[in-house]
């Protein structure tokens, strides 16, 4: 389990090593390295998701490891409370950024191994602290440095615990 501590409280995440082994291992590696500490939930959209894991409070990107292969064809669905990898339009571009679905987002699910169908890999779920995610998604947002849906007050991941 991985615990993200924020000023709103703690979000506890269980990784799915069985269905998304490479993605879960990638995420765990970043957590163990302390990478996520000091990053923000930099994109929050009510009725959709909260995204974090790659930018600091000034929206500067942190240097990441190489991108990983997309495992979105693992049968897991982007349901409320699941954790998925963020990526660019390249299906195999995910590095450290992730998002927590605050509603069911079936349109993000894998439908085929093509540009439109790859989807976003679900690799974990929130086991405690969904109320914290709900509080985060409700904060006022603005545009800043070319980014939209940015919380007016930064929501920093202050501490990360990896619990065996």
UniProtKB/TrEMBL annotation:
<dbReference type="InterPro" id="IPR029000">
    <property type="entry name" value="Cyclophilin-like_dom_sf"/>
</dbReference>
<comment type="function">
    <text>PPIases accelerate the folding of proteins. It catalyzes the cis-trans isomerization of proline imidic peptide bonds in oligopeptides.</text>
</comment>
<dbReference type="InterPro" id="IPR002130">
    <property type="entry name" value="Cyclophilin-type_PPIase_dom"/>
</dbReference>
<dbReference type="InterPro" id="IPR024936">
    <property type="entry name" value="Cyclophilin-type_PPIase"/>
</dbReference>
<comment type="similarity">
    <text>Belongs to the cyclophilin-type PPIase family.</text>
</comment>
<dbReference type="GO" id="GO:0006457">
    <property type="term" value="P:protein folding"/>
</dbReference>
<keyword id="KW-0413">Isomerase</keyword>
<keyword id="KW-0697">Rotamase</keyword>
<dbReference type="Pfam" id="PF00160">
    <property type="entry name" value="Pro_isomerase"/>
</dbReference>
<feature type="domain" description="PPIase cyclophilin-type">
    <location>
        <begin position="1"/>
        <end position="162"/>
    </location>
</feature>
<dbReference type="InterPro" id="IPR020892">
    <property type="entry name" value="Cyclophilin-type_PPIase_CS"/>
</dbReference>
<dbReference type="InterPro" id="IPR044665">
    <property type="entry name" value="E_coli_cyclophilin_A-like"/>
</dbReference>
<protein>
    <recommendedName>
        <fullName>Peptidyl-prolyl cis-trans isomerase</fullName>
        <ecNumber>5.2.1.8</ecNumber>
    </recommendedName>
</protein>
<dbReference type="GO" id="GO:0003755">
    <property type="term" value="F:peptidyl-prolyl cis-trans isomerase activity"/>
</dbReference>
């Amino acid at each position: 389990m991985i615990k993200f501590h924020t000023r709103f409280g703690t979000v506890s995440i269980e990784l799915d090593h069985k269905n998304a082994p490479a993605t879960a291992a990638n995420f765990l590696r970043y957590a163990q390295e302390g990478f996520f500490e000091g990053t923000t939930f930099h994109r929050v959209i009510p009725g959709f998701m909260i995204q974090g894991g790659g930018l600091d409070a000034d929206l500067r990107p942190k240097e990441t490891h190489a991108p990983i292969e997309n495992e979105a064809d693992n049968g897991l669905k982007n349901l409320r409370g699941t954790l998925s990898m963020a990526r660019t339009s390249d299906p195999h571009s995910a590095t450290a950024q992730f998002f927590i679905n605050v509603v069911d987002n079936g349109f993000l699910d894998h439908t085929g191994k093509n540009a439109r169908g790859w989807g976003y890999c679900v690799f974990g779920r929130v086991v405690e602290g969904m109320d914290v995610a709900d509080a985060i998604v409700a904060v006022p947002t603005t545009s800043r440095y070319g980014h939209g849906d940015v919380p007016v007050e930064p929501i920093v991941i202050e501490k990360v615990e990896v619990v065996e």
